[in-house]
C-alpha cells in the first residue's frame, strides 16, 4: 500500500471502524437487487418487485438524512444500535411475508420500514474520519479517496454476490445476507466508541436541516445527477453487451468503468492538491460530462471496454472533492447529516437512472440509452457551474 494510505491506517482505531463500515455498507449495493429477485420469485411479477424496491428506496431517501441528523445530535452509538436492530426486524418480516405468500400489499409497508431504518453508513464512516483526522485535516482527502475505492469495490462485488445467492442458494438468501451485513457491521461500528465523533446538541437559534445550507442545497441535486449517471451506465452497459452477443461480458464491461474510477481515486488521494476543492469539483463535473460522450458513439464491445475505463477516471476524484466540500461547508453539528444528504441523493439517482435507461433500451436499443448518463452529467455540470460562487464563498468562509 502506498505511503499516504499506510500512514492513514496508523491512526488509532482506523482499521477497526473501516472494517466494520465496509461490512455494514455492503448491503447498499445488494438490497435493491435482493428484493427484486425475491419478490419476483414468489409473485412472478417484476413490476411488483420493482415497485417494492422503489418503496424501499424512497423511504431510505427520507429516513437516512434523519438518522444522520440524530447521530450528529446524540452520538452515533445511541442512534445506530436501535436503527440497525429495527432494520434487521423489518427485513426479517419482509422475507417472512414474501415466503408465506401473504397479500402483495403487505410487502409495501414493511419495505418502507426497512428503508426508513437503512442508514447511509458511508457518510457515518466519513464523519468518523473527519473526527479522527481533526488534528491533521490535510490527510482527509486521502481518507475520502480510500472510501471511494471501498464504494467502488462494494458496487462491483455486491450485485454479483446477491445474484449468486438468490439464484444458486435460495431467493431469500439474496436479501437475508445483506440484512445480516447491516446488522453485524452496524453493531460492530457502533461498539467502537473511542473514534466516535462527540455529539453536538442543537444550538439555540440554529437551523434545523442541513438543506438550509446554500452549499448543500446546490450539491444535493448535483450528486443526484451523478447517481443517475451510475445507474444509467449499469443498465446501458448490460444491454449493450447483450446486444453485441456477449451478455456474459457485461460484468467485465462495468468492471472496466469501476476500475477506472478506483484507479483515479488511489492516484488522487496520494497527491497534495493546492487548487480549492470547489474548483476541483467543478472541473471534475465537466470532465465527467466529456468522458461520457465517446460511449454514445462506440459500436464495438471491445472498444467500449477501453472507452468506459477512461469515462470512469473522473468519477471518484469528483466525488472525493464533493465529499470534501460538504465536510468544509457544513458546521460540525451537521456533518453526518450533510454527508448523508449527498450519499442518499446518489442512491436515489441510481434508481432513477436505471429506470430511465431501461425505458430507452426497451424503446430504442442500448446505444441511445447512453444519452441518459451524458445528459445527467451535463445537468450536474450546469448546476455545479450555476452554484459555484455560492459554494466557493462557503468554502472560503469556513
TrEMBL record:
Does the keyword section mention Nucleotide-binding?
no
Q: How does it sit in the membrane?
A: Multi-pass membrane protein
Q: What is its main location?
A: membrane
Alphabetized, the UniProt keywords read: Membrane, Transmembrane, Transmembrane helix
Q: State which residue ranges cross the membrane.
A: 31-58, 79-98, 104-125, 146-166, 172-191, 211-233, 248-269, 281-298, 304-326, 338-358, 370-391
Q: Where in the cell is it found?
A: Cell membrane
Where is the Major facilitator superfamily (MFS) profile domain positioned along the sequence? 215-398
Pfam families the record matches: MFS_1
Q: What is this protein called?
A: MFS transporter
Q: Which organism is it from?
A: Actinomadura yumaensis
